[in-house]
Every structure is written in structure tokens, then in C-alpha cells.
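A.,

Following up on our hallway conversation. C-alpha cells first:
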């Protein structure tokens, strides 16, 4: 079975299945992951951790091009990445390659097992209409 770019959520559903069937280790891991994901907030040490590894150097080629300079104030960058592209975009954001910006993600991504945890740990917030109105009112 090919699970491709959805490995982490698929892995967690396997762990949940094992937890339901009675594996104590999987029950504990599931509870820790679900509780952590519900309450995790942005952590600066995680940004530094990602920047330290320079993840883009794990690829044969890496290019980051800007068509125009991003305004430091009141800028809205819209991106619609999928699967592995989500991680690439967010790793660049967390390494501050776009400046000090806030990453907004769909509730589906933020609620995905493990992927959502890591995005929330890096400071991603929901892109739902109420949150977007609140964020734009602050600027």
C-alpha cells in the first residue's frame, strides 16, 4: 500500500487502531499526541531547531526566488500547497526566509495527526473566516 506524502497522519491512524485494540504503549502515545496537539503553542526553540538543520540542503537543488519585495507591513501571501509542498513552504517560513510572517493553515492540516502538531508548534494558525477577520483587523 502506497501512503506517499501522507505518511505521518497514516502512521498515527495505525497507532490509534493499535490503541483501540488494546496496546498500552499506543494508548499512551495517542493520548500524549492528542493532548499535545490540542494545547500546543508556538515555540521559538522549534524555529531555531528547523533553521539549524537547513532542511533545504537535503535536496539536490534549491531555489528561492522573489518576484517582488514583500512589504513588511500589511502583506497577505496566499499559497495553496499540497502534501510535501506544505512542509517546504512552512519550513521556509519558520526559518524566516520571508521575514517575520504568520502562517495560516486550513483546519484540516492543523487537525491532522502529527503534521498539525508540528505546524502548530511552529506557530501556524487557522485560516477560518473569523480568525482571518481578527488578524486583518490587527494590522
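Then the amino acids I'd put at each of the 139 positions:
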Amino acid at each position: 500500500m502506497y501512503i506517499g506524502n501522507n505518511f505521518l497522519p497514516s502512521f498515527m491512524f495505525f497507532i490509534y487502531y493499535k490503541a483501540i485494540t488494546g496496546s498500552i504503549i499506543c494508548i499512551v502515545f495517542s493520548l500524549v499526541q492528542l493532548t499535545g496537539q490540542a494545547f500546543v503553542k508556538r515555540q521559538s526553540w522549534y524555529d531555531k531547531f528547523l533553521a539549524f538543520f537547513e532542511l533545504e540542503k537535503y535536496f539536490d537543488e534549491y531555489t528561492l526566488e522573489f518576484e517582488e519585495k514583500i512589504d513588511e507591513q500589511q502583506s497577505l501571501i496566499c499559497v495553496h500547497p499540497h502534501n510535501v509542498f506544505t512542509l517546504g513552504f512552512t519550513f521556509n517560513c519558520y526559518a524566516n526566509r520571508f521575514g517575520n510572517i504568520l502562517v495560516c493553515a486550513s483546519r484540516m492540516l492543523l487537525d491532522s495527526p502529527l503534521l498539525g502538531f508540528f505546524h502548530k508548534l511552529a506557530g501556524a494558525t487557522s485560516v477560518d473566516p473569523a480568525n482571518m477577520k481578527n488578524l486583518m483587523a490587527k494590522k
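The chain has one domain: 4-67+75-138. Curious whether your intuition agrees with the design.

B.
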